[in-house]
Description:
This protein has helices spanning 2-5, 9-20, 40-51, 63-73, 90-99, 116-122, 142-152, 203-212, 241-272, 301-313, 325-328, 337-342, 348-354, 370-379; strands spanning 56-60, 81-85, 102-106, 127-133, 155-159, 167-168, 171-172, 179-183, 196-200, 279-280, 293-297, 357-361. The chain is α/β, with parallel strands linked by helices. It has two domains: 2-252, Aspartate Aminotransferase, domain 2 (3-Layer(aba) Sandwich); 254-379, Aspartate Aminotransferase, domain 1 (Alpha-Beta Complex). The strands form three sheets. It has a seven-stranded mixed sheet with strand order 1-9-8-5-4-2-3, with helices on both faces. α7 links the parallel β4 (127-133) and β5 (155-159). α3 runs parallel beside α9 (241-272) and α4 (63-73) packs across α8. The model has no long low-confidence stretch (mean pLDDT 96). It binds pyridoxal-5'-phosphate. Pyridoxal-5'-phosphate binds next to α4 and α5. The site of pyridoxal-5'-phosphate has 14 residues, from α4 and α5.
Amino acid sequence: MPGFEVIGNLEKKYLNEIFTKSGGVLFRHGFEKLRKNIFRVKKFEKGFGKHFNSKYSHSTTSGTAALRIALASLGIGKGDEVITQCFTFVATVEAIIESGATPVCTEIDKSLNMCPKDLIKKINSKTKAIIVVHMLGVAADLEKIKKICNKKNIFIIEDTAWGIGAKIRKNYLGTIGDVGTFSFDHAKTLTTGEGGMIVYKRKKMYNKGLAWHDHGHENNPKFPRYEDTRKSSGFNFRMSELQAAVGLAQLKKFNKIFKTHQKNKKKISNVLKKIDYLEFREKPKNSTDASEALVIIFKNSKLAKFYSKKLKMNGINTKILPEALTWHFAKYWSHMRELKKRQKLTFNTSHNILKRCVSLPIMYKMEKQIPIKIYKILSSKMK
Ligand SMILES: Cc1ncc(COP(=O)(O)O)c(C=O)c1O
């Protein structure tokens, strides 16, 4: 969770410069003279695209908005079905509901991501897209999933809220499917407080998404903004210069954050590997993970409950599993009528895995004694 851990002088400097250099202009468009032609949102988008190897990217107000825009860019709406996985954050399903499409959830497997076998079972003639989630920073099995979707002509959206910087082979997560979405909320690796980014494989979808997030504005250079051209209605999900200033500072720190994450996760997993009754989450071959969290799978839920309580008692927090499971597991989302109407919210296979999991957050500023402290707690006998 390092984004907020490293907020400091550079973020302050970039924020101040909005006022000292750019006349306090907070809007992504216009006011060229007053802002001395400095466009921070656009600079952040360009920098992000360059860093994560995407030709077409634009920012937005949140990761949830990014998902909604992604669906709009693909023309998804009423009468369509969009498949995602049952272990994600409510936002993924909410975005599908907001688009007017019907959400469908698959089971997860031991990677804690979308189960490709169950995906095949859930596809029907109405399925237009899937949203595959790289949950808690580990890549979904996109190579298998891509083959399935390509055969059926189904779009792939990658919800990369947790997977920024991680790769499958040489490709950054988010850039493998048709559209990728990112979140910069306060708990994410790169944070702007609230915010998000969308990356597109094709220019046509980028143009559609960019316009849709800005009331349909095409930003036609032939006209002033008040006479701008449009082809469809849209919404307002524009990022502000304040968020972008923080984003630019965070982007500069990203490589260091990412490497530190990986180093710290390794330190914990190296000691925990010595405990033979612990199992770890599977990840696809040739993938790196964002090292946001280390998920341990216990033999049964009683052990998971016992050790998560013990960790907490000793000052070690957990992350989502088990404490925030009801916000991240569709089994508990009977408040979403659209989801409940289409399928039974049982997800027995996934529940059998998730109830045995404990997730440890990986911090940027990790105290030296943490790995051994965790080892001692998890290797002690259950009483
Ligand atoms: C998997 C997933 N998707 C989407 C989001 C939504 O991101 P935001 O909080 O920026 O709206 C989150 C937030 O935690 C998430 O975990």
